[in-house]
Amino acid sequence: MGANTVLSDLDLDVAAGEFLVLLGPSGCGKSTLLHAIAGLIDVDAGGVEIGGKDVTWADPKDRGIGMVFQSYALYPTMNVERNMSFGLRVAGVPKTEIATRVERASKMLQLDALLSRKPAQLSGGQRQRVAIGRALVREAQVFLFDEPLSNLDAKLRTELRRELKALHRDLGATMIYVTHDQVEAMTLATRVAVMRGGRIQQIGTPGAVYARPANMFVAGFLGSPGINFIEGAAAGAPAVLGVRPEHLALHPAGAGHPEAEVTLVEAMGAHEVVWLDLQGQKLAAIAPSTGAHQMGDRVGVRMALDRAVLFDPVSQERIEGPAGAFQARWR
Amino acid sequence: MSATMAPRRRMPRPARIGLYVFLFTAALAFLLPLYVMVATSLKPMEEIRLGNLFSLPVKITLAPWAQAWMSACTGLECGGIRAGFMNSVAIVVPSTLLSILLGALNGYALSFWRPRGAQAFFVILVTGAFIPYQVMLFPLIRALAAMGLFGTLPGIVLIHTLFGMPVMTLLFRNYYAGVPHELFMAARIDGGGFWRIFVQLMLPMSLPIVVVAVIMQVTAIWNDFLLGLVFAGHDWLPMTVQLNNIINTTTGERLYNVNMAATLLTSLVPLTVYLASGRWFVRGIAAGAVKG
Lengths: 331, 292
What we know:
The complex is a heterodimer. By secondary structure, chain A is α+β, with helices and mostly antiparallel strands.
């Protein structure tokens, strides 16, 4: 794009009916990739195929796609019904067919009572549903979502997230979804592609990407609170151990486990996040909310090393091999 | 028991008085000429000859107004300023429509479609707004004459449209810059092409700024003197030029009351436009600045 290369050497295959999430921080190129798939940006090299058809130079409207934007992008001067039918009217679809499709989509999204309202008279959640409905009536092969839930408040976000998941189940359509929220990625995706700096770091099912991250960036990006990194060595070479907070168990001090001091306790309601100082390294552990841990307590920390992952500190890639061989290098 | 409220901050008395004096003086400076004009236009010539500029008319007469409208002499003809009024309307209406349409189209294309060289084109266009008319007069006369449009109504409409384009393009481009780009992208995904998106989506959304543009163009083109004088030709002289002719034509005595009446008649249109739509002007500017 202009003088910047945002994406280079990117290969992506999306299977029919899958829900692929492009996950990554701001500026990683995920939105650029989505817009390139949609045809809103021209590619400088390579191509795009949808449903076996080469659409690299096709107009967005001829690619068989529907798109939902972060800011809903509803036409402000038209009511809901005309917003949803605009694309069909442009394409010259017969009026009866338009009416059928709009009715079906509005029923699916509980919009039938709102058809004559203008976007300014709708709430945020309703507007997003209309945006989804506008994509639905196109009966597209592929649905593209550009951070559609980012503008909504937390409660509405979780509600609509579940509705999207149900929608995918009911329609069985291919969906490509861009977000920086790893919770959305984990709950919605059949496969997650973690991106950084214009490159895909790892693609896999949410479970695979979570349990066996390909590098330290992917490990650190998924999971909240983030994975703990401990510096040390394994088999004579420097290594970094990645162990998730839920795989640290806290025991009373003096039972033979490495000792740590509790620096902070965050009460989350259902559980507690206990921040520890383990001989100079800062770690997070998840504990049940019994209130047993207070600031300043000394605890013993047991790590489930069979669930941990080893990384090379220089390349930041995962090292294969059992984590049991890891020797921590405490400061 | 409520806590003691802090005393409301009030301007100190002397400062308040000073402010009012200033405002009063400024208002006076603007209103006094207007008062003199209205008063003079309602006086018969006997009273004006007495020389008292600021006095109220003793005997109010509308004869100067009738004379200005229908029988004042603009050079050789004595048909009043009425002909000029019709000419001005015939010039202003198409010029306003065309310049706003073209400005909106330009602003839309530059904002959303961003063709190659759009930035350079825009800079050149806006620079044109800063070149004084006088510099371009002679080349334009030659060009229009070569096209056979010099001294015709289409000619003067073309001139006003051209001169209005830089400001109108700027106005609409800045307005469309405030429209979220995602809206445009959604319309493209829905299959909208250049014209459909413009007519069905952007124009309906542009109502606030169109009102601003109409007010600006109507007042600018109606009040214009130079371009009308040079390009309109004898048959299409606008009201402003006719007014100048009335004032400069003397058959013996200077008829001040007729001149004042003619001036007031000429300025009635822009004045009405402002009074009727000033509220919309402010709303339109504000709507362009803050996009919901």
